[in-house]
């Protein structure tokens, strides 16, 4: 998948919503526990009910790894289902991997080839040779952590390096990596005012923005400071959609939540032409 | 496993060697490809031939994930074999995970409970709430990346924050985390002179030192600057041991390489009493 395909989806759907499939067996409706693969059954129902309202799905790999082999089977089934039933949607493995050279290549192969995701999130701490192996893959996106939406972000990401916050140094440095046009960046919505500064460094790249909804960020603020002429935003929501209901109507409830966000997004898209 | 158990092993074996099980199907002896699980067959042979010469094994999860479900089966078999046959050895999942709050807890559960590793490597970029969920587990170690041995380490880790290199800020900050006594730190051996400075910040903690051997670091230098009264070092070697031979004698060849390192380590242990 490339940027043109993504923009095409955004235009068609009037949405730049990414749904985070952080599927927690303890939070899904109890009646699904009788299914042979409850996590996949849940994901499939959510996807079928929301695919027309979003442009991307983002399973966080931790939720699958926590169940060992069984969890990896659920993840494999989910991505296979997405690729076969809804091939135009962007699929993101929220894996936050970071390792060097040949090891990074292994991770890239795992997510881009073996599982056939369109994108993977990557941590920047180990630098260039931990990111470039991902960037080698054409028609795939590497989504680098820049500024995250958690409290711990202030431990290191906002510390000043040569008079600039570390996350800005990360953005600037990443632009020098080979195939940096295949990058997107994770920028937390709880700090929407930072988006103005971020856009000075990366005026064009797509930003993946978590923290709208359950974590309290405002969609309007994010669009005000982060939207570009070619949208440039994917806004993620996970728990608020996934766990809108624990009853048999969970998928419809999820669709209602997603539709609320999609409508707000459409308004923002129209507002900005 | 706790520090006392680890020191007991180090004393018994005259070794602080960690063997990195970065098992690459393209590099293992071709005759093993006929086995039902070639990667596990290779690991088992290496472990059986070297367990008396080392105190830890460290599979890098990327090498297993690259083979999808099959790879996770190989990893599960490997850790099960280690736990059942050699329970006194330290087992490290070199996963370099880093995510927040409930997601970090999922990763911790995956590696500490589901797979039953003694330790896991973690990336620091997301800060406190991405590390503390791992530190909650008693008798488990969380090994935080501080200074890695790759070229990209100079992109961010050595950049100055308030007059100090970022990796030193990481060390100092991590000491303020709850249960910081359960931390170890990854410090690359290609920069042995940095160990002197690092020991001023973390005088007691164990350091996991990759980059001795194939990556060119010197064991003597590492011990000179990094060893404490209670050893405080785990030195990792991967490729030089694993791929000492591609013939039927690969396990014996690996043992010879490991023995070379173990003897050098014993000398260093005796030198420093």
From TrEMBL, chains A, B:
The keyword Lyase applies. Its EC number is 4.1.1.23. Residues 16-254 form the Orotidine 5'-phosphate decarboxylase domain. CDD domains: OMP_decarboxylase_like. Keywords: Decarboxylase, Lyase, Pyrimidine biosynthesis. It comes from the Bacteria. The active site is at 96 (proton donor). It catalyses: orotidine 5'-phosphate + H(+) = UMP + CO2. The keyword Lyase applies. InterPro entries: Aldolase_TIM, OMPdecase_type-2, OMPdeCOase_dom, RibuloseP-bd_barrel. Pathway: Pyrimidine metabolism; UMP biosynthesis via de novo pathway; UMP from orotate: step 2/2. Belongs to the OMP decarboxylase family. Type 2 subfamily. NCBIfam families: pyrF_sub2. This is Orotidine 5'-phosphate decarboxylase. It comes from Muriicola marianensis. The gene is pyrF.
